[in-house]
Amino acid sequence: MANPIELYFDFSSPYGYFATTQIEALAAKHGREVLWRPYLMGAALKVMNAPPNVHYPLKGDYVRHDFARTARWLGVPFKLPQPFPVATVGACRAYYWAEGKNPKRAKELAMALYKAYFVEGIDISDPENVIKVCAGAGLFPEAVRAGMNEPAVKERLKTVTDEALARGIFGSPFIVVDGEQFWGTDRLAQVDRWLAEGGF
Amino acid sequence: MANPIELYFDFSSPYGYFATTQIEALAAKHGREVLWRPYLMGAALKVMNAPPNVHYPLKGDYVRHDFARTARWLGVPFKLPQPFPVATVGACRAYYWAEGKNPKRAKELAMALYKAYFVEGIDISDPENVIKVCAGAGLFPEAVRAGMNEPAVKERLKTVTDEALARGIFGSPFIVVDGEQFWGTDRLAQVDRWLAEGGF
User: Fold this and answer.
1) How far is B186 from chain A (nearest CA, A)?
2) pTM higher than 0.95, yes or no?
3) How far apart are CA B59 and CA B65, in angstroms?
4) Which of A61, A173, B144, B172 has the fewest CB atoms within 10 Å, i.e. the most exposed one?
């Protein structure tokens, strides 16, 4: 069995959201599975001493425009929420708790969290909103609430984030194919060729 | 006649170099001309209070790897030069002086400057090296040397750079199609569709 593709993303990243709408079909085309790895990109920004893109002069206005255009380009619904960006610790912890129960359903939960934030404008930095999204995805609210507070779940998110930085991962989406790293939804065409040819 | 496409780039930008190898064929496919607009991207980085990409922790290592991979992806020769990045005031002034003589030949000169820096490793921050490249492209060295010092040429570069910033342009390459702005070689597929459909 070929290595799974790894998809690192931040729940507050529009480009991460876009990648989740594309990666499974791309992987399936090449007979690969995908490991979804939400992490706290803010930890990488801290190491780089860099603000989020939207906080820059010049670049901030551009990326706001590009988010919406790239959504149209891919044909996926999108509306920039307020507040943006937000902290996603709760969303990530809910994800890893759910992944421990059922990895496939956890991906559906991740899609539901992205949809809540980037389509319906629900502030997923609020743990209560995360729990509501989880309930909508078929999880017991009280079980999620308890799961988000499990030390092992908290540790899992910390470990994934620390490992990401140790591997040089800093953005969202960040796609790893057999050790080769690709940053950005706009590298999916390169990922496709890499998978087809085993490198180039 | 449809509006020309505008291509803003910095002579020290690998992605700008890559764009110059692609843009003319793309424009021709849609019956468009291209205005080449080398500018000083450092002025935009100053406004954003941002260092060049290669100076960041994490991102620096990634982009060095991505430069070479994207060159292979596009099938263009590339070797990251030392020093990198460099100041490109002299290269830009030579370009605008040459453009005043013959816009088409000026594009060939721009390609020759990029090739000198990103293929042959010649430090184009040195005005004497710029002059040698110009001589190789068929210009009289003494005419170039004088041209690079003409007040009108210096003013032209300053105006182009100021106008770029005033329009919100901050990266390389930056492509403008009928007022719509696209940042990056990785947006050329979107540019292609925009040209075909008049927007999306």
Assistant:
1) 6
2) yes
3) 10
4) A61
Q: What three-state secondary structure class fits B181?
A: strand
Residue A1 in this model has a pLDDT that exceeds 80: no
pLDDT of residue B177: 98
Please tell me which of the candidates B62, B183, B190 has its beta carbon nearest to residue A181. Answer: B62
Q: Counting beta carbons within 10 angstroms of the beta carbon of residue B128, is it exposed (0 to 12), middle (13 to 18) or buried (19 or more)?
A: exposed
Chain B positions in Cβ-Cβ contact with residue A169 (cut-off 8 Å): 58
Instruction: Report the phi/psi class of residue A199: left, alpha or beta, with left for phi > 0 and alpha for psi in -120 to 50.
Output: left
Q: Is the ipTM reported for this complex over the cut 0.85?
A: yes
pLDDT at B199 over 90: yes
Straight-line distance from the first to the last Cα atom of chain A, in angstroms, rounded to the nearest whole number:
22
Distance from CA of A176 to the nearest CA of B (A): 12
Tell whether omega for the bond before B141 is within 30 degrees of 0, i.e. cis. no
Report the Cα–Cα distance between both ends of chain B, in Å, rounded: 22
d(C-alpha A61, C-alpha B104), whole Å: 33
Strand duo B34-38 + B174-177: pairing: unpaired
Q: Which residues contact B103 (CB under 8 A, 6 or more apart)?
A: none
How would residue A189 be classed by pLDDT, with cut points 50, 70 and 90? very high
Answer yes or no: is pLDDT of B152 > 80: yes
DSSP sequence for B112-179 = HHHHHHHTS---TTSHHHHHHHHHHTT--HHHHHHHHT-HHHHHHHHHHHHHHHHTT--SSSEEEETT
CB atoms within 10 A of CB B28: 11
